[in-house]
Amino acid sequence: MSAVAAPRRRLSPRAKAGLGFFARYATIFGLLAMILAFAVLSPRAFPTVNNFTNVLNQASLAMIIAAGLTLAVVVGELDLSIGFAASLHGILVTGLIVSNKLPIPVAVLVVLAAGALVGLVNGLIVTKVRVNSVIATLGVGTILTGLAFAYSAGVPIVAGVPESFLQLSLGRWLAGVPNNIVVVAIVVGGLWLLVERTALGQEIQAVGGNPAAARLAGIDVDRIKILGFVISGMCAALTGILLASRLGSGTASAADSYLLTAFAAVFLGSATLRDGEFHVLGTLIGALIIAFGFNGLNIFGAPTFSQYVLQGAILIVAVGLSSLGRSIAES
């Protein structure tokens, strides 16, 4: 006689509401608790305007590349090429300025166009060739790494970088606010408006939610997916440009580490305010959690390896909270 599996016990409405509240707001409460703890433990160094400005400035590039990645993830795909692409674009912009003597605005526009092209290639491979996005973007990223080493011969481009290019990232042109923070506000604000307040944004969310239903509703699913990759590619290019400006050089692997940071921010953000949904505002909050965590570790003199431990732990927790939010929403 075969055993009959017992039916799964359903959560009571109160328990479901409580878990849903935790899944939506745990990351925000965690951020506030972390800031409070660091402020109490280091009242002179941590809770200052200069330190908070420094945190936002240091986290700005991660916020930009993560915001772009969010668009690719919202349409249901993954872009593993962004870190490698940002490294290549950093080398490319410095090379165009130093070796080809292009004016800085022209070099920046060329590299942003190159970022859009990388995104377009990723999107076409995924939508037209039907290659899984993980494989496609990882392959493209590997190719970009090879191109970066080929373009620079593995040597950082340092000599001849003009001071005016450095001021793109290091300057404070708007009321003393670091330029990178201003750029973050523009990029994140613009992407939030695109996704949340436009008809195109509704199509983007529809494709990510149910591609088959979106196609039946007359939405060009492939076009929307390609758009997500193009935006991701352009944000990676912008990150590479600003990183090269901050470092004063173009280096073949300078931005590779931003891949993990971006994914941690995106998945942590999906557990914020919504039931496991990816969104730009959540990604911003996720990036802030990582940034303040790193800042606290630095203030207390924690060894470098602890940052990698924290980042990996945050990614695991983020995916767990995101899964919890989805399971609650579907129960």
UniProtKB/TrEMBL annotation:
Chief place of localization: membrane
GO CC list: plasma membrane
Job description of the protein: Part of the ABC transporter complex LsrABCD involved in autoinducer 2 (AI-2) import. Probably responsible for the translocation of the substrate across the membrane.
Alphabetized Pfam families for the sequence: BPD_transp_2
Lineage top rank: taxon: Bacteria
Coiled coil: none
The name this protein goes by in its record: Autoinducer 2 import system permease protein LsrD
GO molecular function, one term: transmembrane transporter activity
TM spans (from-to): 21-43, 55-75, 82-98, 104-126, 133-153, 173-195, 226-245, 257-273, 280-302, 308-329
Assembly, per entry: The complex is composed of two ATP-binding proteins (LsrA), two transmembrane proteins (LsrC and LsrD) and a solute-binding protein (LsrB).
InterPro entries listed in its UniProt record: ABC_transp_permease (IPR001851)
Organism: Lichenibacterium ramalinae
Compartments in which it is found: Cell membrane
Keywords: Cell inner membrane, Cell membrane, Membrane, Transmembrane, Transmembrane helix, Transport
Membrane topology summary: Multi-pass membrane protein
